[in-house]
Specification:
Elements: E1 8-11, H1 15-24, E2 29-32, H2 34-49, H3 61-69, H4 77-89, H5 91-107, H6 112-126, H7 132-143, H8 145-149
Parallel strand pairs: 1-2
Helix pairs in contact: 2-3, 2-5, 2-7, 4-5, 5-6
């Protein structure tokens, strides 16, 4: 049994979860977990990484995944250089990586107004992107836009 007043609920992106939350707690603020949002991008990068020449060596796959998932400023110079090579080798990797870092910028918003503006800009840029993985992520975010806006706050 839940006691006390519940004002916020955090969940993943599953539409059924959103329906359950609104049915049980109709007046709470629903917040989407950032982890799952970032995971959309990292999984898309992992799928694309298979096309990279260096990834054909099995021991390199974890290194590639780690380098592509982290923020560029958190990488060593050598790892950043590899990232540049991989992005030149596969344009989809470049696009997904850029969209991920742009989303991280959106998530750094400190006010609801700022978050809404940044998200609107992100969606305008990526909603109909030529890279199918990005367009799919944008569609998911657009569908759950209200819950998403509370994610970064």
């Amino acid at each position: 049994m839940i006691s006390g007043k519940i004002s916020h609920v955090v969940s993943g992106f599953a539409p059924t979860m959103a329906k359950a939350i609104s049915a049980v707690f109709p007046h709470v603020i629903h917040i989407l977990d950032r982890f799952y949002l970032i995971q959309f991008f990292t999984k898309a990068l992992q799928r694309r990484r298979r096309n990279l020449e260096k990834a054909k060596k099995q021991y390199q796959t974890r290194l590639i995944d780690r380098c592509l998932a982290r923020q560029p400023e958190d990488l060593r110079t050598e790892e950043r250089e590899w990232g540049v090579e991989w992005k030149q080798e596969d344009p989809a990797v470049k696009h997904i990586h850029e969209a991920l870092n742009h989303m991280r910028y959106v998530l750094k918003a400190t006010t609801l107004k700022q978050a809404a503006r940044r998200l609107k800009e992100w969606l305008q840029r990526y909603q109909f992107h030529v890279c199918g993985a990005i367009a799919k992520i944008a569609k998911t975010v657009r569908y759950r836009e209200q819950e998403y806006l509370h994610t970064g706050l």
